[in-house]
Amino acid sequence: MSNDTRRSLSGAVWKLARPSAADVQKLTAALGIHPLVAACLVNRGVATPERAAAFLSPSLAQIPDPGPMWNLGEAIRVIGGALARRERIRIVGDYDCDGTTGLITLRNALRLLGPETDDVVSYYVPDREREGYGLNPGIIEQAAAEGVQVLVSVDIGITAHQEWRLARARGIAGICIDHHTALGSQVPADAIVVCPKQAGDPYPEKDLAACGLAWQMARALLADRSNGEPILRSLTKLVAIGTYADLVPLSSLANRAIVAEGLRGLNSGSKNHGLAALLEVAGLTQRSISAGDLGFRLGPRINAAGRIEGTTLGVIELFDSRDPEEARARAQQIDDWNTERQEVQRRLVSQLEAQIASQASDDWVYVLAGDQAEGWHQGVVGIAASKVVETRHRPALVCSLRDGIAHGSGRSIPPFNLIEALHAVGQDGLFLRYGGHPAAAGFSLPAERLPELRERLNAYARQALAPDDLLRAYSYDGELPLSALTIPFVESLAQLEPHGIGNPAPRFVLRGRILEQRVLKDAHLKLVLGDGASRVEVIWWQQRGYADQLPKNARVEVLGRPDINAWNGVRSTQFIATDIRLAAPTAPD
Fold it and tell me: What is the span of the domain harbouring residue 548?
């Protein structure tokens, strides 16, 4: 990775990835692909022709058989035995998109194993505000009181040692399907834990989301059914949404396969009234659905139920709808929750910016808090934290205060492993509970200890980070002459889809002189860039504020991604800007 210390208009630095020329040549020759496509592959860690071929042609056949996964066989035997004996099974899922789609996936698989399965299989999603994240003793006691004999958790449970001990004491067999890691502790001994990340598990695909693990369980449960394969393909429609929304790596062949197959299914339509209605309210019935739509249109609507309503039970009811009109009404309710979430988020982000400004400090990690009653909605603090990270490029923890407890959610920057940081500063019992990923985590602690958390995290960050880590940095895959921006070239880049964590959309740098400039819809900046021989249209969304710094005839460098614009049946290339900087004095026209 080559660093250029010049700052862009946004204050960022750009880093050019420099792949091995030998690896690029090898992939280009072996696969007959464009050299820049080969360069993008190598930049993403795909350097052999065999892996590159698999990467460019995602298929469910690339997902390793789940058989070697620790405890999966035992979990299948317990579930199968319980169904045969007509024992009560309860699935408990997290209130986010991953947990909800995982719950629905496993429940649908169980429904196919025998008649009247719904009589013995029930489900539950905790209430975010009333119960908080994860399993709790109340869930176990309620299950015991209702005669549940097998309790299956999806996307929660890997740190719930106390709850699983309680379940065993109440005569309930526990199965934990989770993809999180439990730092500083072993997985629960009183549950059958299905998690490839647990130490020693030989299963090679470590990065499946919880819904992906539920799909693998469905695969094992349906292995002997003649129609198992088409059922599994159909289930990927939901699993793709949960996988993308949970930000697991799409550099993983398994996750790529799930998302690619799910997109194929979603673009073919759905016979499920609930899913069809969700696609309709999301505005996805009249055009091709992309991976980005999973993350920015479908996932947020499913998550909005958990954020605003507190639970995603309404989403499960949506997918159970037997009548199209009922489904449309339920989907509209979910869409309304999403609209409300957007407004609550907008107000909260404004409060966060005001609090940061009032602190007049140079914190390396922001720890921000406010009362639930004053708009610091517990269901929205995480997504609001992500907005702070986007604008400030520093880790941010945002807390909703209620009854003396700070219920928080944090988001981080790539150099700062958030879950490791929380573990490091909280070993003496600072937190009531915490868990999550390197980039995102949830936690709770007594509100009076928030100043202590802020002090500890900043001390830790100043040891773990360098000042340059707090600079916004964009990596890019190469430089393009304007003449290279052709429709065939842009179409060749589509082979790298679906994009996401671990496989970002390719970014390049264009150089040229601004021939035209105008503001679109009082918000977006449109430039026409020229180099004497070629012209390219550049769109910089939501950045009209930079218009005065980009006058006509200025020489600039534009970092962004190639795109195809289709308008009135005419297709043309354009360039979607991520960032712009004024050209160095020696840069050619």
Answer: 2-57+474-582
Backbone φ and ψ for 571, nearest 5 degrees, come out as -105, 135
- Check if the beta carbon of residue 218 is closer than 8 Å to that of residue 224: no
- The answer to whether residue 588 sits within a structural domain is no
DSSP at 499: P
Does residue 232 share a domain with residue 181? yes
Structure tokens at 484: 């290279």
* 409: phi then psi, degrees, rounded to nearest 5: -145, 140
> CA 386 to CA 389: how far, in whole Å?
5
- The answer for 157, left when phi > 0, alpha when psi is -120 to 50, beta otherwise, is left
User: Which residues 6+ apart lie within 8 Å of 370 measured at CB?
Assistant: 351, 355, 376, 399, 400, 401
Residues 293 and 275 both lie in one domain: yes
CA distance 220 to 203: 14
* DSSP assignment letter at 308: I
d(CA 280, CA 522): 29
Identify the sign of the CA torsion 345, 351, 353, 355: negative
Helix 228-245, helix 97-111: angle, nearest 10: 170
Residues, the chain: 589
pLDDT in tens, 105-126: 999 999 998 778 889 999 999 9
Assigned domain for 284 exists: yes
535: CB partners within 8 A, 6+ apart: 482, 515, 528, 529
Q: What is the pLDDT of residues 23-46, one digit of tens each?
A: 999 999 999 999 999 999 999 999
Q: Look at the pTM and tell me if it is higher than 0.85.
A: yes
For residues 377 and 309, the answer to whether their CB atoms sit within 8 Å is no
200: region left, alpha or beta (phi > 0 left; psi from -120 to 50 alpha): left
Residue the block writes with tokens 């936690």: 443
Compute the distance between CA of residue 63 and CA of residue 27 in angstroms, rounded to an integer.
23
